[in-house]
Design a protein that fits this description.
about 80% helix, mainly alpha, about 375 residues, about 0% strand, globular
């Protein structure tokens, strides 16, 4: 499951470090180039719920396997795109394939592990997500520096194919899976029950806002650092994604911390870390910018680990559907806010991006204190 999570993020955001190259290659704006990231995550978000229902009915492991193979094929195909429309279409199809993995993964872990192990296991799974996101971006950036962005995306596809083969050989069969109905009337009843829960909708909104702020900052920081006075190349910009290693560490630490501290306090403290990190990127000093990114990354993955584990704890029998709703909110935030940050970048430069992305994080802090603190022990 860690290999599956690694592969998803390895493939999904591969164009993020090469957005400046795509603007030059295809003659498009930075906001349009960012769609190569957000369109894939949007496709993923919209298909999470339908594919979670398929996994509830037909099983988890086989769907994840086919989706990993399909994602690898489209990752390789995006490197051959003759124009930006075909590239965008390839990234959308890649996101659609990848949707099948998280749609089933959280439910698979919830079914196959004892309750006391789920938060720690989710922390490890999210740590693998962070490692995959870091590795994919770094490899694309390095290959682009010495060859071209097309070679970088082709490398993603080849690694994705090897990872799918590894998943095929390693995945244990689900021993506690029981098929669920996918009739519309029970689905509607389940949705009403889920959204009547006092905590789940707020956790969905938390995921939407923190992911939006995180993706928006990383999307457009590359444009800032490619300009003077920094003038960094693809490899140097890609090296910034090594900070994702902090996300791997923080997600594991946060998963363990839930056994000792209230969840809402962890979310508030880590949201404050995110806000401070965003604010630090306003500085002109490159070391301070990198330190701010480190703080942002540490806080973001800690919140995601705590919130996703909390969602699994409150999910009840419809783990697949609840997980899909959480992750759909998570990826929609990355797509909508992540691309919308292009407007303040084009109009107000980096100051506009910082102000725009501080707002959702501040809302998370307020929301957690007002609503989620009442549910911290449940």
């Amino acid at each position: 499951m860690a290999l599956a999570g690694f592969t998803c993020f390895f493939l999904l955001n591969g164009t993020q470090p090469i957005l400046p190259q795509l603007t030059h290659e295809f003659g498009i704006s930075p906001a349009m180039a960012s769609l190569s990231v957000s369109a894939g995550t949007a496709a993923m978000a919209f298909l999470l719920i339908p594919l979670s229902l398929v996994s509830d009915r037909y099983g988890r492991a086989s769907m994840m396997l086919w989706c990993l193979f399909g994602a690898a094929v489209f990752a390789f195909g995006s490197s051959l795109a003759p124009d930006y429309f075909v590239l965008l279409l390839s990234r959308i199809c890649l996101g659609a394939c990848i949707a099948g993995v998280p749609a089933a993964a959280m439910a698979y872990l919830g079914e196959e592990l004892a309750p006391g192990l789920r938060s720690r296991a989710m922390g490890l799974y999210i740590a693998a997500n962070a490692l995959g996101g870091m590795s994919g971006r770094l490899i694309v950036a390095l290959v682009t520096e010495y060859f071209s962005w097309r070679h970088g995306l082709a490398t993603l596809g080849m690694v994705g194919l090897l990872a799918a083969i590894g998943f095929l050989r390693l995945i244990p069969p689900g021993l506690h899976f029981f098929p669920q109905s996918i009739q519309l009337r029970p689905l509607y009843s389940d949705l009403r029950t889920i959204y009547a829960d006092p905590g789940l909708p707020w956790l969905f909104w938390t995921a939407f806002m923190i992911m939006g702020a995180f993706v928006g900052l990383y999307n457009f920081l590359g444009f800032r650092l490619s300009l003077e006075p920094y003038a960094l190349g693809p490899a140097a910009i890609g090296a910034i994604f090594l900070l994702y290693a902090l996300g791997s560490a923080s997600s594991v630490l946060a998963g363990r911390a839930t056994t000792r501290h209230p969840r809402h306090k962890i979310i508030v403290v880590m949201s404050a870390c995110m806000a401070a990190g965003i604010g630090m990127t306003w500085a002109s000093s490159l070391p301070i910018i990198v330190a701010g990114l480190a703080l942002l990354t540490f806080g973001f993955f800690a919140i995601h680990a705590v919130a996703s584990g909390w969602v699994g704890r409150r999910a009840g029998q419809r783990r697949g559907l609840v997980s899909a709703l959480y992750l759909s909110s998570y990826y929609l935030g990355g797509s909508i806010i992540g691309s919308a940050a292009g407007w303040p970048w084009e109009q107000f430069h980096w100051a506009g991006v910082v102000v725009a992305l501080l707002l959702p994080v501040i809302l998370v802090i307020a929301m957690t204190m007002l609503r989620l603190r009442k549910l911290s022990d449940s």
